[in-house]
Design brief:
Elements: H1 3-17, H2 39-50
Length: 60
């Protein structure tokens, strides 16, 4: 699974748990409540789920 799609899956899970109706990228919001910022939670969960991940580089 790609890291970007895994991040989206984690965001969806957290949004459901916290009963959030909308999740925006910080850059898309002019003003927002800091207590609704789930960035740190997403990063922690993403790191937990990818700690054993391997990076494969294909040379062309």
């Amino acid at each position: 699974m790609k890291k970007k799609s895994l991040a989206a899956e984690i965001v969806t899970e957290i949004a459901g748990q916290q009963k959030l109706d909308v999740v925006l990228n910080k850059n898309a919001a002019l003003v927002f409540r800091q207590d609704l910022d789930i960035t740190e939670i997403v990063i922690i969960k993403l790191n937990e789920r990818t700690k054993n991940a391997r990076l494969e580089i294909q040379e062309e």
